[in-house]
Write a structure and sequence with these properties.
mainly alpha
Length: about 200
């Protein structure tokens, strides 16, 4: 538990996704058949860098939640019920919500919907396997990005879903043709995605 808590604390130091990882670590601890209760206090370690950052924001900007307030103001990352967020995303994926020069952002929201579908399938599979820690990680990610005004950033969050990539690697090893199919799809998609990013069609 101690090494895991240390690494999760380091993750929380550099990225908000570390908070989701801390949640997954707690679930993994509680559902484990071999729990070392003496190591339980280490679960609080990932909160230390987060609280430190919040204290810094309070000192500099006068608010403990300045980061979240900036997210709400600049990126509409305010809490929205998931069904409302999904409705907004469907609207953005079909007809857009931007000026004419941003009409090509519709493909970005379509990709977000695909990522959401994959994430929900992955979550169901993990729950079926009773992989509670991994399921908590994916659920926290989907839940956090799926409760904004609209769903976005979920596509890049899929890169962190290690259960998905490990499962694909195992399948590709058992059936090599699946690995070749994945590469045939992933390489051109990665090129298109990179082109969209560098031309402002995703990042603005």
């Amino acid at each position: 538990m101690r090494p895991a808590a240390i690494f999760v604390a380091l993750a929380s130091t550099v990225r908000v996704s570390g908070i989701f990882l801390a949640f997954a670590l707690i679930v993994e601890f509680l559902t484990s058949k071999k729990r070392d209760w003496l190591s339980m206090p280490w679960l609080a370690l990932p909160a230390v860098p987060v609280l430190g950052f919040m204290a810094y924001l309070k000192q500099i900007h006068g608010s403990w939640f300045a980061w979240q307030e900036a997210q709400e103001k600049g990126w509409a990352r305010e809490f929205t019920w998931p069904w409302t967020s999904l409705m907004h995303t469907f609207q953005a994926a079909s007809k857009g919500h931007f000026a004419p020069d941003r009409s090509d952002w519709t493909w970005m929201f379509r990709a977000e919907l695909v990522a959401l579908f994959i994430g929900l399938l992955l979550l169901v599979w993990l729950v079926w396997r009773r992989s509670w820690g991994e399921a908590a990680w994916v659920a926290a990610t989907v839940g956090a990005f799926g409760t904004s005004f609209w769903i976005y950033s979920l596509t890049r969050a899929t890169l962190l879903w290690w259960p998905l990539w490990i499962a694909l690697a195992v399948m590709a090893r058992r059936k090599p043709w699946l690995g070749r199919l994945y590469l045939a799809l992933a390489i051109p998609l990665a090129a298109i995605w990179a082109a969209g990013f560098f031309t402002g069609r995703w990042s603005g």
